[in-house]
Amino acid sequence: MAKDDLNQIAAGIVAKSTGQKNPAAVSLGRLGGLKGGKARAAALSARKRKQIAKKAAASRWNKRKS
């Protein structure tokens, strides 16, 4: 294992333990999240979207009954 690898691992451990996050990574993740649902819905057929919506609704109703 190289010295740089150990330093990166140590920096990661410190960042996790102190709650620090990489702002660039956070913004990229948020950007992908904002695009994701719309892009996925656009790629699906109307029939498939309907199937997914029915499954989600059934899941929500089943949770409420129990």
Notes on the protein architecture:
- This protein is mainly α and 66 residues long.
- The protein has one domain (3-65).
- 86% of the residues lie in helices and 0% in strands.
- The protein contains three helices and no strands.
- The radius of gyration is 20 Å and the shape is elongated.
- The model has no long low-confidence stretch (mean pLDDT 83).
- Structural class by sheet pairing and helices: mainly alpha
Radius of gyration: 20 Å
Q: What shape does the CA trace take?
A: elongated
How many separate structural domains? Answer: 1
| Succession of helices and strands | HHH
Kindly report how far apart the N and C termini lie: 51 Å
User: How many strands?
Assistant: 0
Content of β-strand = under 5%
On the 0-100 scale, what is the average pLDDT?
83
Q: Helicity range of the residues?
A: over 70%
Main beta-sheet annotation? none
Poorly predicted regions: none
**How many helices in DSSP terms?**
3
What would the keywords be for this entry?
mainly alpha, 3 helices, 0% strand, 66 residues
Layout of helices and strands, plus pairs?
Layout: H1 3-18, H2 23-43, H3 46-65
What does this entry show, briefly?
The chain is mainly alpha-helical and 66 residues long.
